[in-house]
Write a structure and sequence with these properties.
heterodimer, A: mainly alpha, 15 helices, globular, B: alpha/beta, six-stranded mixed beta sheet
């Protein structure tokens, strides 16, 4: 052969986007809320973030080596999983439990199902739910912000107080201590990365601007949580507190938008987000757990293949076979 | 479907040659003219080795209804009639002519007599003109309409949505008169009442030239469209210019449209005026490996190598050379490939442009689904293909895929979606053939 011309199927020009760049964007978007979490809850939060990211990457690397498959840690998806998992943990969690959580997320939920793109449930959420059951004491701990001068044993997260109703003393006291602005900035009890709604919102806007995600899931999820809370409590302030509580923002912006485990079309995303909001609200108001974001997303993950099927677009000019 | 029409993908434009008026290249020493330059039956050679031929002489006769004649593009001597590999992986007959350098027109080249519809279609047939936008479908077949009242409008394709290519743009700016003559022929002989010219809005000069025409003839409507690939895909163009949906398995004519590339129409007008069939082609020569990108008028059958040499050769080693644009173009294994009737560009890429990222696992981001102009679902097609179940593949409607490559362009995992869709189509055809055979057998047994 006198030349070395490459012959391949068209197209011969590709877009610049890669999986790694997408994951990097998600990491960047997570940073404001993660940094806020470290500021609010202290160095423990930083240690947990580092632990989860490192152990997720190591577990994925070891698994692929063990299975003699090409290493996929370069795509940064394990970093994203680790960071989201850490942000879903209370800052006081023992480090070894975070490592166990990372194992569940990466090895059990992701790698055993075939790796990136093949898992049916969100790895970080599955790990969080498993840990909630396995390590109830440490996982459900109500960790106050460093700045709060409160009796640790008496401290409560918003969602454990709010259901007592607007007239109760506990809620009045809580609202006096924690203003809506505090709630928005994240100076309240909760998992280390879920409290700073402002930071999460910033990340969400970045992701939408970079076209990594579309607005449908976060807007519908958060909007519906607000509307449902308002419908049930009949009070605007209560509805705002509920919306800013728990994991609504991190769930709606970062976990319900996970490509692999959520629908592809706009219609599907709206159905998915509505389902998440309804289940979240049902658990918050009528369930025995104070928070329901993780459960709701996990449940909708299971329904995802069906939603995808129901919302498939109609081929252009297609006739029934 | 969205109110704003089918949205597309923002591919890079790279229309470097938009201001390069076509240059006629010197007569090549030899030309290799394939008999299969169109969709349908290959033409049948009607000359023998040693024959002297003139420019425009028929050297291959149309063989069947969907076929087109092939003409000598240079004057000279027939040197060889043999088999060569074609770019689809098959083989075809090609006639090699050694040029005498005179470009002497053959005596058969006289303006055809066109006084009615039948004579017009016969003239288009004799001209050897095929769809010059890329598909190469014999044009007279499109014009063979049983009931002329069926034709509500003609849509002229000036979208030229592929990156790099500017040949049609230059037809619109430099040969506007030919296009106007062509439109008048269509109005006169087909009774066409409305002609819509669809042009992407990144070609203001072409839009302006065509708007001049619409001032002379109120039947002409110029429709600027957003520069979003694949605006020039036939079904996309019809939808975005007329709002009509061509159903699966149907032709544009079934919804009252005839779609034609602007250059095709210009060539028809030229043939009716001069009688010179389609023997040369204006094409864009570009790509990162080409020394001086330009638009070139080359005789059909000129080797790619001769054309690249005319453009100053290569400034870098070419690693990928293709017919057509980078989105749907066909990569070729050698520079000996000839210029064909429907070649609107040849591109040569350097190592950097020729090396594409490796395929990584699908992350189900849905970009392909949300950018497919025809609303197909590539992951579902891939799944059906893997299952090997023909009925499942049929459900995905992969048969309507036009292989535009928009899905691959937006895929962060750089999945080989077009490749898989091609395989799925082949698998589907095999399944349908099998079904038809089974049905036939069952009927025989009854």
């Amino acid at each position: 052969m006198e030349n070395n011309l490459i012959v391949s199927v068209s197209p011969h020009v590709h877009g610049k986007r890669t999986t790694t760049k997408v994951m990097l964007d998600v990491v960047i978007a997570l940073l404001p809320a993660a940094i806020a979490g470290i500021v609010i809850f202290g160095m423990n939060a930083a240690i947990l973030c580092a632990t989860c990211v490192a152990s997720c990457v190591v577990f994925e690397f070891l698994f692929t080596k063990l299975c003699k498959r090409p290493t996929t840690v370069g795509d940064l998806s394990a970093v994203v999983t680790g960071l989201i998992l850490a942000m879903n943990l209370p800052a006081t969690l023992p480090v070894w439990q975070a490592v166990v959580g990372s194992f569940i997320a990466i090895v059990v939920t992701k790698c055993l199902f075939g790796g990136l793109g093949c898992n049916f449930a969100n790895p970080a959420i599955t790990a969080r739910v498993v840990m909630l059951v396995a390590f109830t004491g440490t996982m459900a701990a109500a960790v106050p912000p460093k700045s709060a001068e409160v009796d640790l044993t008496a401290y409560a997260t918003p969602l454990s107080v709010l259901p007592q109703g607007l007239e109760s003393e506990a809620v009045t006291a809580f609202m006096e201590n924690t203003s809506l602005m505090d709630m928005f900035l994240g100076v309240r009890g909760g998992a280390l990365g879920e409290t700073c709604a402002a930071g999460l919102l910033l990340g969400g806007i970045y992701l939408v601007a970079r076209k990594v995600i579309t607005w449908h899931t976060p807007v519908v999820f958060i909007g519906a949580v607000f509307v449902l809370a308002f419908a049930i409590t009949g009070d605007m302030t209560m509805a705002l507190y509920y919306t800013l509580s728990g994991g609504t923002f991190i769930g709606a912006i970062f976990m319900a938008t996970d490509y692999v485990t959520s629908p592809s079309t706009a219609k599907g995303k709206i159905i998915f987000a509505l389902g998440c909001a309804v289940i979240t609200t049902l658990i918050r108001f009528f369930g025995s757990y104070p928070e329901g974001v993780s459960f709701s997303i996990l449940f909708m993950n299971i329904l995802n293949p069906y939603i995808d099927k129901w919302t498939m677009k109609k081929p252009f000019g297609g006739v029934k076979a | 479907m969205s109110f704003f029409g089918i949205k597309g993908v923002h591919v890079p434009h790279r229309k470097h040659t938009a201001d390069c008026h076509p240059e006629r290249m010197p007569i090549p020493k030899t030309v290799v003219i394939p008999m299969a330059q169109h969709i349908g039956a290959p033409a049948k050679p009607v000359v023998s080795v040693g024959d002297t031929v003139g420019v425009g002489q028929v050297i291959g006769e149309a063989a069947g209804f969907i076929s087109a004649p092939v003409h000598a593009s240079v004057s000279g001597t027939v040197k060889k009639i043999d088999t060569m590999a074609n770019s689809n992986g098959g083989t075809m007959t090609a006639i090699t002519i050694e040029s005498d350098g005179e470009m002497r027109p053959h005596e058969s080249v006289v303006p055809p007599t066109v006084t009615n519809y039948e004579e017009f279609v016969a003239a288009v047939r004799a001209s050897g003109i095929v769809g010059l936008g890329g598909a190469g479908f014999p044009t007279f077949v499109k014009l063979s309409v049983k009931d002329l009242s069926q034709v509500q409008e003609v849509v002229l394709n000036g979208a030229e949505c592929e990156p790099y290519i500017t040949a049609d743009t230059l037809t619109m700016t430099d040969r506007a008169e030919d296009i106007f003559e062509g439109i008048q022929l269509l109005e006169k002989y087909l009774g066409v009442k409305k002609v819509i010219i669809g042009i992407e809005d990144n070609k203001p000069q072409a839009i302006k030239a065509m708007q001049e025409l619409s001032k002379k003839d109120s039947a002409i409507v110029v429709k600027p469209m957003p520069a979003a690939y694949p605006q020039g895909g036939e079904k996309v163009l019809i939808y975005n210019t007329t709002g009509k949906t061509v159903p699966e398995g149907k032709l544009p004519l079934d919804v009252g449209c005839i779609v034609m590339n602007v250059t095709t129409l210009a060539c028809i007008a030229e043939y009716v005026r001069t009688g010179m069939p389609l023997v040369e082609k204006c094409l864009t020569v570009d790509g990162s490996a080409v020394a001086t990108p330009k638009n070139v008028i080359a005789p059909i059958g000129t080797s790619m190598k001769d054309v690249f040499d005319f453009c100053g050769g290569f400034k870098e080693e070419p690693r990928k050379v293709m017919y057509g644009g980078p989105m749907m173009g066909i990569a070729v294994p050698t520079l000996d490939e000839p210029i064909l009737k429907n070649t609107n560009a040849i591109l040569a890429f350097n190592d950097k442009d020729a090396t594409l990222p490796d395929e990584t696992p699908c992350i189900r981001c849905g970009n392909c689904i949300n950018h497919c102009p025809l609303n197909l679902n590539p992951p579902a097609i891939a799944k059906a293909l893997k299952s090997g179940d023909g009925a499942e593949i049929a459900k995905t409607k992969v048969n309507i895929c036009m292989e535009c490559g928009a899905c691959v362009f937006v895929c962060p995992a750089h999945r080989m979606i077009v490749h898989r869709n091609k395989l799925a189509k082949a698998e589907l055809r095999a399944y349908q053939t099998k079904l038809a055979e089974q049905k036939k057998k069952e009927e025989e047994n009854k």
